[in-house]
Amino acid sequence: MSERPPIVRRVLCPGSFDPVTNGHLDIISRAARLYDEVVVAVFVNQSKSSMFSVDERREMLLEATAGYGNVQIDTFQGLVVDYCRSHDIPVIVKGMRAVSDFDYELQMAQMNRGLAGVDTLFMPTNPEYSFLASSLVKEIAKWGGDVSALVPAHVLKRLIERTGAPG
Ligand code: PNS
Prior knowledge:
The chain is of the alpha/beta class. The chain has six helices and five strands, in the order E-H-E-H-E-H-E-H-E-H-H. 4'-phosphopantetheine (PNS) binds next to strand 1 and helix 4.
């Protein structure tokens, strides 16, 4: 009997990451423990106005995940399922913060499964981060609020530089 080739378990964590937060990193690090390869891709979302360019977001993710040997960072404009197809990724991992995330995430998951047979696995966010969103971090930072517990230090530095707020 011929031996089966080893299965590489590769997963996609898609998002806007504008900017990456400790909540995102919680999900990415847990996915990195469960899968052989984790691809974190910054998707361009034209319906959202962003604080950081796609390249800046990529740089922040690169720095934040530098300690993980099996995490790659990429950027993409287009459908998540097209990215999955062209990179041979069968599964998307998404963090689920609260029930309020559920409707939209379920709709996307079912659409992605219908479009291309790509499955989505939901990972409950660490309760410590269940309120955390990049949009809130940006708003608080703009008004000089303290977000140092919510993002890595290098992201905090960029937020302070970008907003001109005292930090
Ligand atoms: O961090 P976000 O903004 O919640 O991420 C949303 C993201 C990037 C996952 C979503 O906007 C997305 O899937 N964009 C790619 C376009 C796409 O595939 N749309 C169809 C979804 S069914």
